[in-house]
Amino acid sequence: MKKLAIAVALGLTMSAVSLQLLASPVKVGMITTLTGGGASLGIDIRDGFMLAVKQAGNADLSVVVEDDARKPPLAVQIADKMIQREKVDILTGIVWSNLAMAVVPSAVAQGKFYLSPNAGPSALAGKRCHKNYFNVAWQNDNLHEAMGSYASNEGFTKPYILAPNYPAGKDALVGFKRMFKGEASGEIYTKLGQKDYAAEIAQIRASGADSIYFFLPGGMGISFMKQLTQSGIKLPVMGPAFSFDQGILKAVGKAALGVKNSSQWSKDIDNVANQAFVKSFNSEYGRLPSLYASQGFDTANLILSAMKTADVKDADAFRTALLAANFDSVRGDFKFNANQHPIQNIYVREVIEENGILTNKIVATALENHGNVYASECSL
Amino acid sequence: MANLTIEHKLNIFLVLLLLVLPAIALILDEPFYITLATKVVILALAGVGLNLALGLGGLGSFGHAAFFGIGGYIAGILASHSLNAELMFSVLGVEFDGTTNMLLIWPLALLVSALVAVFIGYFSLRTKGVYFIMITLAFAQMIYYFAIAWPAYGGEDGLSIYVRNQFLGLNTLDPIIFYGICFSLLMSVLLLVWRLKNSHFGSALQAARQNEQRLAAVGIPPFGIKLTAFVISAMITALAGALFADLNRFVSPDMLSWHTSGEIMIFVILGGVGRLFGPVVGAGLFILFEYFLGGLTEHWALFLGIVLLAVVLFARGGLVGLIAGEVKHD
Amino acid sequence: MTAILLLEQLLNGLQFAMMLFLMSAGLTLVFGVMGLINLAHGVLYMVGAFACAIIAGLTGSFWLGLLASLVAAAMAGALVEVGVIRKLYRRDHLDQVLATYALILIFSGGTRWLFGAFPLYLDVPQILSTPVNLFGLLDYSSYRLFIIAVGIAVALGLYFLIARTRLGMRIRAGKSDREMIAALGVDIRTLYTLVFALGAALAGLAGALLGALQSVEVGMGDSVLILAFVVIVIGGIGSIKGAFIGALLVGLVDTMGRFLLPYLFALVLPPDSAASIGGALSSVAIYILMAVILIVKPKGLIAANG
User: Using an 8 Å Cβ cutoff, are A323 and A132 in contact?
Assistant: First the structure.
């Protein structure tokens, strides 16, 4: 009886302690691209993230945001400042793989958490995975793998594939070919930042391909699509979501209609969280959310969910709470793989016109509960 | 003391500032400001390198990012091989390993950059003025695109060093110690450049800028003088690049891009072309503006542009020129 | 590889060259006449594209947009010349570099502030949106043919302007001797503003024409600026003819390099490394071209000012 009383008393004290600990505030540092080329991606991530923060109304969560202008050394400088001066607990926000590679390894080595709302370079998924690094979006290969699988299922046998000549571009084509059964009719690596694709389009025309798969993020993709339409080539076009997402579709214009693109999220995914998100994002910012906004939103909700059960100062407990991913993701089922990257469905969407606005609707599920091939190289 | 010009006093003041400010940051326990000061010192060093070519020799190189990046990549590549315990390459049975020792990294960075600079300089120095600006840019762009596409060391993604390289057993991850290393190097190089400027070589170089024919007439070939200056200038910038890689614990092709060449040139012009401490002032102000404006507004680039424009319109000869007046020939 | 594909690629190279010519004509004029290195030239390209996209968006007419691009870029050019550039003519080239770099930051930052970071929409006009059949051999984009035509028309127009008109005579005089022309009673300030606005208008036109094929966004002028410098340096600074030849060389070498180099490597290498190495080498083809030309002819192909 006495023992029980002690146990109860102890338990009470402990829960009192942990309740008190739970109140310790969480400071998030967001480094993202707000100016220069590709700024729209960072703005969407930030807006999605801040929407979730606002909706939660949790006074214990504070966020500082800074612009990296897509320059790696500036991102490193801001990370140093946020860690050393602002004493943030969690870093997030980076859009580009090369900036992530500059910031993430040293940030996690200093005991900070990093939650990636976009970039997922293979180096951080495999050998260099880290217990403090979580990816809430995708591993870089994922969307390309999905499209490769879809292209096979649709009966395409001779796709022409192209991507910029840099690591993410090579990962893209390797990812596509990994899941595609057959041979590409041709592949080209273009110059990074290239805006004129006349030479490549002429080759596609001459190649006898039955379809086109391209990964050309940002302005490169807009240029490619416009010029492809101009050329009169009428082959089916496929790509990852990046060139056909909400923020960019308006600039691509009707050239994009009918294009199939792979994405882990779409605004027509039918779950309560997603419908509420699309509605509130639209009323808050006056535009439809993009893929990037959904990733920012999920990242913030993941942090908020972990704050409910663990204290950020207790790194191991907080890590466990993050890993549980106990939040309502707008993309539906979401859990973490062993290397702390998502296991999720990847859909194929088609670009349609809806009430005069170009947008996407899901037409197929390309991969179900898909992880990534690098998990086996990760020692976590 | 009476013989000191305003510029001398300014230089002494700057050295004191670079000593005192980090010390204050250390006392206030604000390590970030030490890191920021380190960045200023390293970028100033890169500028000092360019200033030797640009200020003394009149060689407006728009390709110094090549040397900055080469220095960075030497540090990054050596460190990554050492950290992964991989063999780098072997020649005739002699095996070369990577290293994390700065005292080995620096000489190698200097050597490689010197070789590349001899090559680039040999061809580029046949041109003058804007043509020289553009041909140096062309060579730098070739290296830049090569680095983006070359997969062995990360391509566009860059290469992480993870921990700082070693220097005489000191804890280089401690901001103030790394600052001390960089500061000492900057001071040594400034001393060297000052000696060079006042040497026969320095006079010949300035003569080569002003009047090549006259220099050739007294039996000194201007080409050799200019090439030497270009190579030394490249080596200094490469040393800065190696330090920059260690500061960020990361190198990427961004260090090789024409934006970087442009920024190094901006430091020099902003501070004052040909002034010994010009790049220190230029880099310092540029970084401070970038930092403070970046913290205030996401439209910081706009305001940075306005500040730079104001400086160039109202301060002839850069900021050092504004404070110290016209160059005195001593 | 077929002869038809080769022909199509030659047309592509020609179209790229004409775009480069529009960009570099103004740059080389401003350098030749006023001795000014203008890094902000790429910004005027962006201004043209934005003006075209906005006006075309409001009115639904691409042609009005094109007109707006000329007007907006010329006005922006004149404004910048009077407000800032005028103070820089007597300065060192390096001061000009810093000042015009500052102008890039100001214009890009301002545009970002006014119009946001999302790319704007601009499409080719309806009448030029479908390809035409050439000689029964191939379908080719009519819009690209239109750009080629505009480029050639501008080249002829500039030739006429400089060789045959009073303004052209003054420009030629201004190139060779600034004091002389002032002594002749020509209002040199107005002449300079006019030349600068003309160059700006051409850059704006290039931006609008290309904006319909590419993405209209902040920073779009940066990479074009570097290319334009490559062109005028190859051609010889200050020479319109040089800019035309330089543009043709750069346009053709770049397009054919992107097309042929992977082909050549594919003969000896497996396909994915051929694509990768060929791609890498074609990225630098124009820089190799420029370096070689400058090594052989240190003042460019056509040395304008002796």
Answer: no
List Cβ neighbours of B143 (8 Å cut-off, separation of 6 or more). Answer: B66, B69, B70, B256
Indicate the residue type of B90. S
Given a contact cutoff of 8 angstroms between Cβ atoms, the answer to whether C281 and B139 are in contact is no
Predicted TM-score (pTM) of this structure: 0.86
Residue range B6-86+96-324 forms a domain whose CATH class is mainly alpha
- Confirm if B283 and B47 have CB atoms less than 8 A apart: yes
**CB distance A168–B157 less than 8 Å?**
yes
**DSSP E strand stretches across chain B:** 87-91, 94-97, 159-160, 250-251
Query: C107: which chain A residues are within 8 Å (Cβ-Cβ)?
Result: none
Distance (Å) of CA C17 to CA B148, C42, C219, C242, C274: 26, 16, 21, 13, 26
Which domains, ranges and CATH numbers included, belong to chain A? 2-138+269-336 (3.40.50.2300), 142-263+346-377 (3.40.50.2300)
**Quick check: B250 and A106 in contact, CB under 8 A?**
yes
Q: Which DSSP state fits A154? A: T
Cα separations in angstroms, A89 against A32, B154, C24, C290: 17, 29, 51, 50
Q: What percent of chain B has pLDDT over 90?
A: 53
CA A193/CA A51 separation, integer angstroms: 32
Query: Would you state the pLDDT for residue B324?
Result: 83
Interstrand relation of A26-32 and B87-91 (parallel, antiparallel or unpaired)? unpaired
Q: For C257, which residue in chain A has the nearest alpha carbon?
A: A199
Test the A interface: residue of C118, C120, C142, C216 with most A CBs within 10 Å: C118
A284 lies within 8 A of chain C by CB = no
Among C92, C112, C294, the residue with its CB nearest the CB of B135 is C294
Q: Is A187 on the interface with C (CB under 8 A)?
A: yes
pLDDT band at A7 (very low <50, low <70, confident <90, very high): low
- The whole-angstrom separation of Cα B56 and Cα C42 is 31
**pLDDT tens per residue, range B173-232:** 889 999 999 999 999 999 999 999 999 999 899 888 888 888 888 888 889 999 999 999
Tokens of B114: 């010197």
Buried-state track A109-131, b at ≥16 Cβ within 10 A, e below 16: eeebbbbbbbbbbbbbbbebbbe
Is C185 exposed, middle or buried, given 0-12, 13-18 or 19+ CB atoms closer than 10 A? exposed
Q: Is the pLDDT of residue A16 over 50?
A: no
Specify the amino acid at residue A204. I
pLDDT in tens, A311-348: 999 999 999 999 999 999 999 999 999 999 999 999 99
Task: Please work out, in degrees rounded to the nearest 5, the angle formed at the alpha carbon of residue B154 by the alpha carbons of B150 and B158.
Answer: 115
Band of pLDDT at residue A17, cut at 50, 70 and 90: very low
Q: Which of B54, B141, B148 to mutate to test the interface with C (most CBs of C within 10 A)?
A: B141
Average pLDDT over residues B252-275: 91
Arithmetic mean of pLDDT, C84-102 = 87
Query: Identity (one letter) of the amino acid at A309?
Result: T
Secondary structure class of B155 (helix, strand, coil)? helix
Q: Give the CA diameter of chain A.
A: 88
* B330: confidence class by pLDDT, cuts 50, 70, 90: very low
Tell me: pLDDT of B169 over 90: no
Which of C210, C139, C263 lies closest to A205, judged by CA?
Answer: C139
- Interface A-C, measured as beta-carbon pairs within 8 A, has a size of 135
CA dihedral B29, B33, B38, B43 (to 10 degrees): 180
State the Cα–Cα distance between residues C54 and C77, nearest whole angstrom.
19
Kindly give the pairing relationship between strand A61-67 and strand A26-32.
parallel
